């Protein structure tokens, strides 16, 4: 599934949910059973995950941003209220200037978090709209699909890409991913589709709660 399809006819968020950093995990031994449902955000080191989180929260400095890729080197659990679920910011991947040891450490942390996580109701693959599909993106997507985790796709930095080029890349991803509609284009800078993205997240959380209660 991708984030372009939103069930509700109205996607306007009148009151932003409150987003607070509740826990940071650096090594697998620090992982514990967090008490709420979780939606993970995954992407390359320079895809703009931190900027996206800040825009969603309506705060400039909730997640640390940097012009240097690879700033996020931990799992960060952000509690969303009053809906009561976590947005989990995963370490960025694909940063060539980090040592192989460091990259392997992040990969083990991500794998330990994802494997067998029964509270995880999906992973949002954040993909850079300026570029065609990258090998590291496909590796992550194939891993997530192999774990039978629901996968949702979002194309970031849409304001930095000419319309024709982003449509071309959007079509490429649509062919590669099992979705009926193209991945959603968003921009943390301009706010493009941010209400729609929030609505998508809230709908996926509601779907998860319905399934857990036996409603589907």
From TrEMBL:
Coiled-coil portions: none
Lineage top rank: taxon: Bacteria
Cross-referenced InterPro entries: G_ENGB_dom, GTP-bd, GTP-bd_ribosome_bio_YsxC, P-loop_NTPase, Small_GTP-bd
GO biological process, one term: division septum assembly
The keyword Endoplasmic reticulum appears for this protein: no
Pfam families cross-referenced by the UniProt entry: MMR_HSR1
Residue intervals of the EngB-type G domain: 35-207
Keywords tagged on the record: Cell cycle, Cell division, GTP-binding, Magnesium, Metal-binding, Nucleotide-binding, Septation
GO cellular component: cytosol
GO molecular function terms attached to this record: GTP binding; metal ion binding
Cofactor or coenzyme needed: Mg(2+)
Family: Belongs to the TRAFAC class TrmE-Era-EngA-EngB-Septin-like GTPase superfamily. EngB GTPase family.
Function per UniProt: Necessary for normal cell division and for the maintenance of normal septation.
Protein name (database record): Probable GTP-binding protein EngB
Record gene name: engB
């Amino acid at each position: 599934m991708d984030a372009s399809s939103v069930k509700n006819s109205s996607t306007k968020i009148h009151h932003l949910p409150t987003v607070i950093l509740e826990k940071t995990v650096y090594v697998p031994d620090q992982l514990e059973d967090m008490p709420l449902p979780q939606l993970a955000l995954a992407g390359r080191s320079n895809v703009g995950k931190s900027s996206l989180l800040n825009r969603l929260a309506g705060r400039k400095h909730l997640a640390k941003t940097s012009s240097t890729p690879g700033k996020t080197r931990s799992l960060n659990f952000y509690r969303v209220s009053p809906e009561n679920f976590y947005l989990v910011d995963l370490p960025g991947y694909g940063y060539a200037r980090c040592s192989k040891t460091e990259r392997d450490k992040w990969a083990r942390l991500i794998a330990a978090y994802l494997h067998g996580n029964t509270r995880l109701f999906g992973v949002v693959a954040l993909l850079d709209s300026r570029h065609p599909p990258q090998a590291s993106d496909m590796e992550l997507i194939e891993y997530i699909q192999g774990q039978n985790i629901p996968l949702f796709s979002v194309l970031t930095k849409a304001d930095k890409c000419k319309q024709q080029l982003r449509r071309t890349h959007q079509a490429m991803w649509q062919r590669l991913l099992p979705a009926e509609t193209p991945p959603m284009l968003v921009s943390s800078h301009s706010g493009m589709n941010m209400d729609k993205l929030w609505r998508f997240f809230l709908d996926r959380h509601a779907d998860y709660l319905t399934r857990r209660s036996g409603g589907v």
